[in-house]
Amino acid sequence: MIFKENTFKDKNFLITGASSGIGAHIALTLNELGAKVVAIARDDQKLKYQKNQAKNPENFICISKDLSDYEKLDSWTLELCKEFGGFDGAVFSAGISENTSIRSIAYIQKAKKIFDINYFGNLQVLKGMVDRRAHSKEGSSFVWIASSAATVPQRGLCLYSASKAAIVASIKCIALEIAPKFRINSISPALVETPLIKNNDFMQNYIQMANETYPLGIGKVENITPMACFLLSEDSSWMTGQDVMITGGGEG
After folding, report:
1. Cβ contacts of residue 105 below 8 Å, gap of 6+?
2. Does residue 210 have a pLDDT over 90?
3. Which residues have CB under 8 Å from 96's CB, separation 6+?
């Protein structure tokens, strides 16, 4: 890790999808670097497991919440911001993936399930955080985890890719609306080895493909976290509306 100890001392960050994978690693790293982290995910037990791994567990706050139930999530987030006295930024990492063909009978229902979490749930949290009443700190930075799948076609991943493409398009527009007080950028990793990937039988073919075709091999969560930390830090204060691709030299 290139960041110094206490880089984020006295900073508060909210992380969605913090119970595993990229979100968990970012949350633990920010905590190690001195930040208070409010870690949000559906699975309370997995969140508690991450808290037990934290260097400063007293500053790793676990909140169980299902982002797919997004209708009043902006109001809920607003109250959360008030409770913690505002945040210095957030990482939106909550997401699911499902391989399915357009010929599938329940295709649109599956599309809604994916978009509810990957896009609408995270969007509602962001909406709550940029509300004037949320008291998010001046200079707050938001990072949304997208995917290289947004631009690189893969058979069966239309719905997942579409949800990630929506993120990339949205941050460019939202950046214009929330500047100059706030910033927002996205990160688009190629295939990264996470529990979401490991537990998906279909994805084993992609793992093999990545190891064979990515010049630097399949990614690890450790490859993504430094960029997230950079985008949250003041060192990236002149960056907003950008999608950063991290692909190990590969394309998909």
Report:
1. none
2. no
3. 113, 114, 117, 118, 196
Residue at token pair 């999530």: 73
For residue 202, is pLDDT > 90? no
First to last CA, the chain: 26
pTM of the full structure: 0.95
The pLDDT tens digits of the residues spanning 95-145 come to: 998 889 999 999 999 999 999 999 999 999 999 999 999 999 999 999 999
3-state secondary structure the chain: CCCCCCCCCCCEEEEECCCCHHHHHHHHHHHHCCCEEEEEECCHHHHHHHHHHCCCHHHEEEEECCCCCCCCHHHHHHHHHHHCCCCCEEEECCCCCCCCCCCCCCHHHHHHHHHHHHHHHHHHHHHHHCCHHHCCCCCCEEEEECCHHHCCCCCCCHHHHHHHHHHHHHHHHHHHHHCCCCEEEEEEECCEECHHHHCCHHHHHHHHHHHHHCCCCCEEHHHCHHHHHHHHCHHHCCCCCCEEEECCCCCC
- Residue pointed to by tokens 């290289």: 148
